[in-house]
């Protein structure tokens, strides 16, 4: 099957040739279908996709935004596709934020994203300095190597199915006052009995944030299955993550950000991540906002856990609702249908 490269043309950008040059060298021996215009986003269901975006000096690409508009408007456009993302910037900013908004749109259009689906290149390629040192090569060569590795993983990785999948649920909320937890209770009650569900609460006082230990210290404790600060992370969360086939986060939106305790969990996950990757573990989330902004939190989840920590991101795996007063979410129009869809996504992803 041909690799589909979606590459909205950027007018008047000198770095266009850099990204295109890398792609043409990496894909020289591949069977590739190129898409450059919004009207060509047809008949892509079940395809393997690399979405490559070139940004100008202000972090924009108008033809990309035309494609983004269509992705956000058609929830089945990329049904069954598997995707990766390449963003090449003229400046030093906006590559990762563009990738996060694109990843959310791809997931919402039916596309699954492999773990660590992003290769980003800033204008100076300074973000490849460490990789270049490790590979004993130039930053340009490190950039090309990263694209080649992404293409290989896109074409070879398959998410495994389990007969009795293990799902780890993490939250830092109270059941009686949280719309997010209300949605989780509904979800849990509808999951198949064959699921093994582990639920861990990370309330105040149970978890310390990462203190940015030196790399060698973090690696030392990670290799032993723990973290310098120990506690619930080392004793409960790390073992549960190792056993889990899927992770679901309950993320109420209080201040347009992931809550402090769940942020601490993500930061502390670094010690375990240094020891192992999470390509074979899927991430799901329930996000409830009192007024607006669920997509802001969803992009943070994707950036932290899919792009950074390498969790597999299934299509439609982040459920977003708006509700304020406790229990209000149950009155949202169309909720039963969205609940059924979310349960189906979790079940199909982990069990098939």
Can you offer a commentary on this structure?
α1 (16-26) crosses α5 (139-156) and α4 crosses α5 (139-156). It contains 12 helices and 10 strands. α6 links the parallel β6 and β7 (196-201). Mean pLDDT is 91; it is low at 208-215 and 217-229. It starts with a strand and ends with a helix. The chain has helices at residues 16-26, 62-73, 95-108, 129-135, 139-156, 179-190, 215-223, 231-243, 260-268, 270-273, 294-308, 335-350, and strands at residues 3-6, 32-35, 48-55, 81-89, 111-121, 166-171, 196-201, 246-253, 282-289, 318-322. It folds into 2 domains: 3-156, Flavodoxin domain (Rossmann fold, 3-Layer(aba) Sandwich); 166-350, Flavodoxin domain (Rossmann fold). It has a 5-stranded parallel β-sheet, with helices on both faces. The protein has a 5-stranded parallel β-sheet with strand order 7-6-8-9-10, sandwiched between helices. The protein has 352 residues and is an alpha/beta fold.
